[in-house]
Amino acid sequence: MPKQKTHSGAKKRFRVTGSGKVMKQGSGMRHNFEHKSSRVTRRLNGDVELPATEAKIIKRLLGK
Fold it and tell me: Residue 41 belongs to a domain with what CATH number?
């Protein structure tokens, strides 16, 4: 049986931590920073953990 390929869109957007959590960048961090306050920018800058139901799907796409 052939190996399953990693989903190339998912590997650019998600990462799996050592403990198995799936992390992604917060939404709203691509453009229009001149309209956002520095406080909002700092809050959105951190990574966000995915819920367990979505994490299961993403792990399958990543082959983990």
Answer: 4.10.410.60
Distance (Å, whole) CA 58 – CA 13? 10
The whole-model pTM stands at 0.78
Written as tens digits, the pLDDT of the chain (64 aa) is 888 899 999 999 999 999 999 999 988 888 999 999 999 999 999 899 999 999 999 999 999 8
